[in-house]
Amino acid sequence: MPYINLYKEFILIVWGEIMNSILLTTMVGLIAGMLGTGLGGLVTFFWRKPTNRSVSVLLGFAGGIMFSIVIIDLLPEAIENSNLFCAILGMVLGFILLNMSSCYFSHYIKESEYIQTGILLGVGIALHNFPEGLAIGAGYAVTEQLGFGLALVMAFHNFPEGLSMATPMNVGGWSPSKILFSTILPGIPMGVGAFCGAVIGEISPVFLSIILGAAGGAMLYITIFELVPGAYKFNYGLDASFGILAGLSTGILLTIIL
Fold this sequence. Notes:
Shape: globular
Number of strands: 0
Number of domains: 1
Number of helices: 10
């Protein structure tokens, strides 16, 4: 009988350690995701109301950042995890998902086109954050140092994405506090991904490839059909082109640094 009680106590201690580890991993992933995109939204507290000319530059800048993230980060990572077919399959699925979301928003969300663009960007960023969370959870399963290091990198890496999402929302007239809250929300899937990664441990490379490709396809859709046309909507084509080039350069630089 004493041996049974000792065994039960041992099981409870081990189970408690496992649950604490999973909870810690989830919280780190959640904070990293929400902080990263939220910092991009925080920038709007220092912006004045943009003019038509600055709108062209800002939307071009956001489009340039998004395009650089797809080409330099998401697509190569999707291919590296599995193969080109899975990456392209994911991109097609992400493209279709955002097209359907765009149709839904245009019919049922009574906001300006800029706000709808910002919301669509949030959907794409949320898709991107889930596999990043999986990586954090899997990292913590190896060592705590690796998991925390990945979370720190992901938080900084999400800043330009949050900024890109905040830009059209700012142009659309939302208040800085509303934009900040909205940019925090897409960070939540990183916490969900971290939880799944901690529980499952090793994630299927094919699944990761498709999810990363879907995030890339979603962001590519937004860039091609929302941000770039919005940048050239006014008669400031040169300014829009400058914004796109500046965004591309910034995105590439941040990707290399982070």
